[in-house]
Amino acid sequence: MYLRDHSQKVMKLNLLEEYLLLALDDEKGKFVIDSTRLHFGFAGAVLLELALRGKIQVEGERLILNDRNYEPEMSVNKMIDIIREQDEPTLKKSIEILARKSADIKTDTLQRLINKGILKKEEHKVLWIIPYDKYPTSNLTPENKVRKRLEDVISEHSPVDPHDLMLLSLIDATDLTKEAFRDKEDYKSIRDKIKEVTKDIKVSQVINKSIREIQAAIMIAITASIIVTSVATNN
Hints:
Elements: H1 15-23, H2 35-52, E1 56-59, E2 62-65, H3 74-85, H4 91-100, H5 102-115, E3 122-126, E4 130-134, H6 141-154, H7 162-173, H8 177-180, H9 187-200, H10 205-234
Antiparallel strand pairs: 1-2, 3-4
Helix pairs in contact: 1-2, 2-4, 2-5, 2-7, 2-10, 3-5, 4-10, 7-9, 7-10
């Protein structure tokens, strides 16, 4: 495999938007993974997006903010604020804080996708009293392009860029493989291939290292949260 020059690619959706589309059922307008994985998935997507833009890097446990300037997305700026507000920002603490703010991140990202005409908002009520919203897909083309792009990378039919590499690592970390590759049957081989791709391809020393550190931190955070939830439920 070889790398595609990411600077020459016009990217209409950021990493968080693409991740949300893959995690959302197209027709039902509901998320297909549990809230724990989803919350940490959002946190990881924001961090990886910042790494992709060169705004952060990971050194040991430290999270270093290279660029303090704000971005167009509220969800990305929340992460910048979290890092700036910490005396000694760490990757672990930043993920935990951002995961707790996932409702705001989700709302912001959903609205951005609605504004782009990709999703639509439907208001419903349980027993005609309790309101809740659904977000079915109104334009499947952007998501289908993402799925095709990832499939081509896994099948080694196309080069991979840092953006795709980060999205694949996020899919693997939050157990979204079956949904992201829903037309496939052997999900174990897909997971193995994702691990191979994210391990072997060298993007750049800083970005590649950040991907590994962030992915590992997300996995640890998800596992720890699931264990705590399970223990609390059993008790």
